[in-house]
Each structure stands twice: as C-alpha cells, then as structure tokens.
Design brief:
heterodimer, A: mainly alpha, two-stranded antiparallel sheet, 2 helices, B: alpha/beta, 7-stranded mixed sheet, 28 helices, elongated
C-alpha cells in the first residue's frame, strides 16, 4: 500500500512494526505508515472483494 | 545430486518450502532499490525459475535468491527488500542494509525508476560510498521515454564513475547488457558526497578509529553513526570493543553539538544537492504544459505569499461551502426532516408502541433520549452526511499531494507554537478523530512537541463531525462563523505560544521529500472516503448507543437531572438557554454528540446568533471525549492528563464567558 501523505510504499508486515506498542492493539482499524506516521483507515472487506473480483476478471480476459 | 541441481528440479515454490539456503561462501550480486521500481521483475528476468525464497533469519522478511544461467553458476543473485535509504527505518530496510554488509557481495545493482531518477539517485550515491562496485539500472526507461524524459546515460555514467544501463524488466530490454556488465566485477567509483566541514571532520575522526577490514567503507559507517543508526552502533561495539566505541560515540556527540540541525538533515540536503549537480544537463524533462502547471502550482502551494491565501480558498470552498452548506445544510436537512422525522421516527415509535413494552424500556428505545430516536438519529441523520462530505473533501486533498505542501508552508508558523511542519500530520488527523491523532503524536520527535500537540488537540482541534456541525450551525450567519473561527484559532495560537514559552526543550527540524502533485482520481477518492466512513461508523455508532443508554440510566436514577441542574448556573453565566445544558452534558461523552445536540436545539429556534456563537466556541474548546481522555492518560500519564483536562475545562468556560461579555458589549 501507499502512504497518502509521503507516498512511500509499505506492506502489512511493516504496518505491524509501525504499530508496535500502541495501546489500541489494532482495534483502531487504521494503517500507519512506517516512514512518516500518517494513518489511513484499513481498506474495508467489500473494497478488497471488489478488487480481487476485478483482478480475476482481468486475468480471465487476458487468458 | 548437488543442491543447485535439486533446486532446478523442484522449482521456486517448492524451494521456498524446502528451507534450503545458498552456499555460505557464494559470491553475491545484490539487486537494491525502492519498492515498486521493477526490481523483482528484473530479478525474475535474470534468474528465470532458478529461485529460492526464504525468510531472512530472525525476521518475517522474505528474500529471494537465485542463479543466472549466463553468469558463473556459483554466483547468487539476491533480490533485497525495498529500501529508500541506507539509514533503515523498517525491518525490510534493515534486512536490505544487513545484506549489504555481507563480505561475499561482488556487485550491487541499484534499480531505479527512470521516471523518478532525481528522487532515487541519492541512494545510488550512498551505495557508491559503501565501497561496493555499483551498477545503475535505469529501469522502466520505456515509460520515461513515453513521458518525454530523456536521460543521457553515457554522461551520467561518466559523472558517477559506474556503469549505467537503461533497462525494461518486463520486455527484457537492456538485460543482456546488464548481464555482460556483471560478468566481471564492475569498476569502483571514488565519487563522494561532501556534507559540510563539521560533518566531514567528524567522519574522518570516526573513520580513523574503525576497522578498515569492514566490508562497508568506514566513511559510510561513520555517516550512519552520525545519523544515530542504532544497528550501526551495535555492530561498532561488537567490532571495536566498548572502550573504542565509547570514544567514537563521544566524537558523534561532539560533532552533533557543533551543528545547528541534526546530521541527518545535512546528509539528506547534501545528497539532494549532489544529485541535482550530477543530473544537471543529463536529464531533460518535457517542457509540456502539465509539467509547467505542476511546477507553478507547487510554488503557489509552498510560498507564504500565495500559500496562505490558497489555504483560505481551500477552507472556504472545501469546508464552508461543501461540508458546511452542502453536507451540514442540504443533506442533513433532507435526512433529518424528510426521512427521519417524517417517516423513520413515527414508524419506529408505532412499532415499539405496538409491542407494549415496559415504559422504561420503551423510553430506552424511542423516548426523548432513546437509542433509536436520539443515538441512531444523531449518527445517521446528522453525523453521516457531515462526515461523508468532510471525508470526501479530505480524500481529495490527500490524493492531490497537497498535505505535505501544507506541512512545509506552516512549518515556520508552527515553530512559534513549539511545533514544526511534522505536527501537521496529527493536527490534520485530529480533524478526522482527535483520539487517533493523540496516538499519532508519538511520531513527533521530542516529548515537548508531543505534549504541546496533545494539549492543542484536546483544546482547539474539533473532529470532523463537530467541525461540520458547527460550520453548518453558523453558516447562515457569516459574522458568527468568523467570530468563532477567530476565537478558536486565537486560543490555539495563544495556548501553543504560551506552552512553547513555558515548556523547556529544543526545537527539532522538519524536512521531507515532497511527493509530486497529482490530479486526484475519482476511484481513489471514493475508496478513501468509503474506508474512512466505515471506520468512523464503527467508532461512533456504539458510542452513541452507549451514550443513550447512560442517559437513560441517568434519567431513571435521577443523576441526569442532577447534573443538568448543576450545569445550569454555568450555562446561564454564558448567556445560554437552560436547554443547552443537555448538549454540554452530551459533549462529555463525545464532542460531536454534543455538537449534534446543539444542532437539534438550534432547529427549535430557541437560540440567537449571539448564543449560538458562544455555545459553539465553548463546545469546540470543551473537554475531549472519553476515548480521547483514556488515550491521553495512556500516552501522557494520569497526572498530565488531569492537568490538561482541568486546563481545557477552565479555558473553555472562561473563553465562552469572555466571548459572551464582549459580544454583549458589541451588541452582537
């Protein structure tokens, strides 16, 4: 994913590192950029499903 | 059957499960670079299917390594995790920098996105300084050509003193040249980036005490030590022993003491300047209208003379017109009047009445402060359209790349209140939710900054829903809105200024690499808005329902009436009607809940413009919600939190009272 503030890219593992020791313990549903600390909400399941559906569709079209 | 033959037979996927490691003494060619520059695609082109994927020891970071058929079969090619700089921040970067220390490294291929070479060449310079033979792969050169970017790679190669090869990892363009270059160890470059006399003296002093046998140049290691790289400090103690390490760290401390800003700032600035000098005349950018417009907008956003009027224009159209008038006006009116009051509430009351519930339970569901009639109505009919409009506006700003420019613009002003441009992150996030923003204050460098930012968030930064409701309340009366904005901003600046004067401590520097300005894409903006709204509703709906239940318990036990009775003298002193005490009581649960109560009250027409202004000022400066209070207590400790809460409460009512007196005197 890409940070909305600094535009640097990071993955889920790096998010876990950035959130280490936070009292909310992940209950905040936010994603924290390990580089600048900017937080964005985690992408909801519905959007993830739509994305994977579109990807699968793309693959089918290509094949 | 030897290991290589075995790997070829089982293929990459099985190899990753097999946990087979490469030979300990195999010469390595490292692919290094930022994430998303086509590094892995280049790795796949070089290695084909002869790949092993394994976790780097002690981490969950995956590292791929494999062989290239055209190169000596002993050579391992390693696809290192993405890194932005030699000074690591994330685990991935730490792993990438650890691999660089391996004594078997024969060459480093720095893979860059040719379109953004100016932002990536700094790492090339750092890699050259490590003393490793470096090859620069200008990847995605086809995309750069399409954009009209021309790079004179021969001149660039001459200036850097290393081979520079344009590549397209997807099509394979330039791969054979890269492989040919890697058949023999590439030449070593002697190019160095000077970081100013004080740092250079420090580097020389530190490097003279370090072991020359290290695989990484003492100069690089000294530069990392000056930038407080903890990993490098650990290595240092292991290598030279505690006594010499302590002497070196003393040199680090004395060098830092001679500088006005952190060494990291000077190193970054020197790398940027050197990059600019090297690329001068090597890279020609298209002189097209979009590039000119982007440069022009960039200047407008960051220069104070144009930047501050632009902030005003953005706030006027974004907050006042869109969130205030459209979200809190048109949309709330439609949902409140046409949907909830006309259809939903009468229907739900009829439904509950038909079940003949016990009266107190009926009140809990559909009474004056019931879950459905108050909690759900506030959340959906009032807060939903307001935060929806706010998040849409906010996502557009985010996607355009405006926020980092805002941080740069306000840096100087923020310094007067003990903060710097970095504080824009928690401050801006505070408009979304102050509780989350209080947690984000951790990213600020000093305790002093964190404390000042926490105070300002608790006092003067309204969350999106509260801000939207207040703008909606006052949007019909321009003077009232201007007075509210003036008083709240004034209190914020005055508090920050006083805190900066009273709290001792140093003023850290702020600098960041500006990402490019972009035209927001509708899809991105809608996804961000939707994600934020889902998150917000997860947060507020349970809180609003809990608040309704607590009020119901308070009504049954008589506590609610008692609290209202005690609050009324304060409310009267502010010149407000007794009914507004309920809104202030709601504000103790959540500030946005209180603002929604005020909105409800305004609709009944019991409040004048004067009273609305005073109520809006007092409620904006009011105590943070329960969640923010708990987070403050966790982050800043109980004693500090109680002091902040006491100060906020006193300030809110004192400023409210003073506003009432002044506005009465002004006959407003």
């Amino acid at each position: 994913m890409k940070c909305s503030f600094c535009q640097r890219e990071f993955n889920d593992e790096q998010v876990k590192d950035a959130c280490q020791g936070c009292p909310s313990g992940g209950g905040c549903h936010m994603v924290k950029c390990p580089y600048c600390g900017y937080e964005s909400p985690r992408e909801p399941g519905l959007i993830k499903k739509i994305r994977s559906f579109l990807k699968a569709n793309d693959r089918e079209k290509k094949s | 059957m030897n290991k290589d033959t075995f790997l070829k037979l089982i293929g990459a996927a099985n190899a990753s499960e097999s946990g087979i490691e490469p030979k300990a003494d195999a010469p390595l060619i490292l692919l290094v670079g930022n994430p998303n520059v086509g590094k892995s695609a280049l790795f796949n082109k070089l290695t084909g299917q002869y790949v092993t994927v394994s976790n780097y020891p002690g981490t969950t970071v995956e590292v791929s390594h494999g062989h290239c058929q055209e190169l000596d079969r002993d050579i391992e090619i390693v696809d290192t995790p993405g890194m932005y700089s030699l000074l690591p921040i994330t685990d991935e970067e730490r792993v990438a920098s650890d691999i660089l220390y391996s004594p078997q490294v024969r060459a480093v291929v720095h893979v860059v996105d040719a379109k953004n070479i100016d932002r990536m060449l700094g790492l090339t310079l750092q890699l050259i300084e490590t003393g490793r033979p470096v090859v620069l792969a200008l990847n995605m050169i086809d995309e750069a050509r399409t954009l009209g970017i021309a790079i004179d790679h021969a001149t660039l190669s001459g200036r850097l003193g290393i081979p520079v090869i344009p590549t397209v990892s997807i099509t394979g363009e330039g791969i054979s040249k890269l492989i040919a270059q890697l058949k023999t160890p590439p030449p070593l470059s002697m190019i160095r980036t000077e970081c100013g006399s004080i740092i250079e003296q420090g580097i020389i002093a530190i490097a003279s005490l370090m072991s020359p046998a290290s695989p990484i140049s003492p100069r690089t290691r000294a530069t990392l030590l000056l930038q407080s790289d903890l990993r490098e400090q650990e290595r240092l103690v292991k290598e030279v022993g505690e006594q010499t390490a302590s002497t070196i760290l003393d040199i680090v401390a004395s060098t830092k003491a001679k500088l006005n800003h952190s060494p990291h700032y000077y190193v970054t600035l020197s790398l940027r300047t050197h990059t600019g000098q090297i690329l001068e005349g090597c890279v020609s950018l298209p002189n097209r209208a979009p590039a000119r417009v982007r440069n022009f907008l960039n200047r407008i956003c960051t220069q104070p003379l144009t930047g501050y009027p632009l902030v005003f224009i953005v706030l006027y159209f974004g907050l006042y017109k869109f969130v205030g008038q459209f979200g809190a006006g048109t949309c709330v009116n439609f949902l409140e009047d046409s949907v909830f009051r006309t259809h939903f509430i009468p229907w739900v009351i009829r439904l509950v009445d038909a079940t003949h519930l016990w009266a107190p339970i009926r009140d809990l569901m559909v009474g004056e402060y019931g879950i459905l009639t108050l909690g759900v109505r506030y959340a959906i009919a009032i807060i939903f359209p307001i935060v929806g409009a706010f998040f849409l506006f906010f996502a557009t700003l985010e996607d355009s790349g405006y926020l980092p420019r805002l941080a740069l613009l306000v840096d100087r002003g923020f310094k007067r209140i003990g903060l710097n441009g970095r504080a824009v992150i928690p401050m801006v996030l505070g408009f979304g939710c102050d509780t989350m923003a209080t947690l984000v204050t951790r990213t600020l460098e000093t305790t002093r900054e964190r404390l000042i930012c926490t105070i300002l968030l608790a006092l003067a930064i309204p969350c999106s829903a509260q801000l939207g409701v207040i703008i909606g309340l006052l949007s019909g009366q321009g003077a009232a809105l201007a007075i509210w904005a003036f008083v709240v901003t004034g209190v914020m600046l005055l508090t920050g200024w006083l805190a900066a004067k009273l709290l001792p401590g140093e003023q850290p520097m702020f600098y960041m690499e500006l990402p490019p300005l972009r035209l927001p894409t509708i899809g991105n903006v809608l996804i961000k808005t939707y994600s934020r709204m889902v998150w917000y509703f997860r947060e507020i709906l349970p809180m609003f329902i809990i608040a309704s239940v607590l009020i119901w318990i308070g009504q049954i036990t008589g506590l609610f009436q008692l609290l209202i009775k005690n609050l009324i003298p304060v409310i009267r002193a502010l010149g407000l009607p007794d009914e507004s005490a309920v809104a202030f009581l709601f504000g103790f649960f959540r500030r946005d809940y209180g603002a929604a109560g005020l909105y409800d009250l305004q609709k009944t027409g019991v409040m004048t413009a004067h009273q609305l202004t005073v109520a809006a000022i007092t409620l904006t400066l009011f105590l943070p919600c329960i969640a923010q209070f708990l987070v403050m207590q966790k982050e800043r400790g109980t004693k500090v939190t109680l002091w902040i809460s006491f100060g906020v409460l006193v300030t809110a009512f004192s400023v409210g009272y003073l506003s009432h007196i002044v506005l009465t005197w002004m006959h407003f």
